[in-house]
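Lecture 7 notes: from sequence to structure.

We start with a single chain of 284 residues. Read the sequence below before looking at the structure.
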Amino acid sequence: MTKLLKAKEAADQVYEGIRTKVEEWKRNGVQPHMATILVEGDPASAYYAGAKQKIAEKLGVAFTLHAFTAEVAEEEILQLVHRLNNDSSVHGIMLELPLPRHLSASTIEKAISPLKDVDGVTPDNKLATVTGDTGLYPATPQSCIRLLKHYGYTLEGKNITLVGRGQTVGLPLFHMLQRENATVTVCHSRTPDIASHLSHAEIAFVAVGRPNVVTPDMVHPNLVIIDAGINETPEGKMVGDVAIDVQSSAAAVSPVPGGVGTLTTAILFENLIKAIDLQLGEGK
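Now the structure, written as tokens:
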């Protein structure tokens, strides 16, 4: 029977550690503070920003949502980022995506201080993700590996198939898996036969951003699958990149929702605590 790799227990453990750290910083006179930038127009982004605010309240973290209308000028957002970078009471900055077409996510992300970049999107932190140097690594790739390890799976020496090479998940995940001493095959849109690579894999990570990329006929009974995709169906249902019926064809699968995304949110706040350490504590 296929094992479902649900993330709630792992996320709760992360949150417990965060609460302890938040209390420690408060005793030292520091109120952990996350700032999120939201440009209106995408209902999912607004939902996720609201969800993060509720979690922040439970953790004792101050949370400020900076919301702009869809017509906002890029310079106005950049000015806000500059102010937040220089505000010592703000320890983490996050930009909700997607943005309207007239705004450049890359330009805005590059303006964020690497020490406050809890999403790991600045050039400095992207480089640190590659090299393994100190930095704030992107949360979703971290979540993929942490979820797997939570269930007792190891990566060293394993044959891994990574489906997807995007800047947000696939590419940084590739470098993290390399540092775990896994043997990694990367599949992408130009790979003619993904199933042939999955047939040799012990573990698969799927991060494409399109439903049904992996179907039951492509997997085998000993395969462990981490699904990092999240897609909305026309009916408004959230699904992953892996077809739901794969759950009866593989050894283990992370569900969507309830898998990688659940742990990713927790790791974002863990990155906030690490950011405070870099700004005020261990990093000095």
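The chain has nine helices and eleven strands. Keep this in mind for problem set 3.
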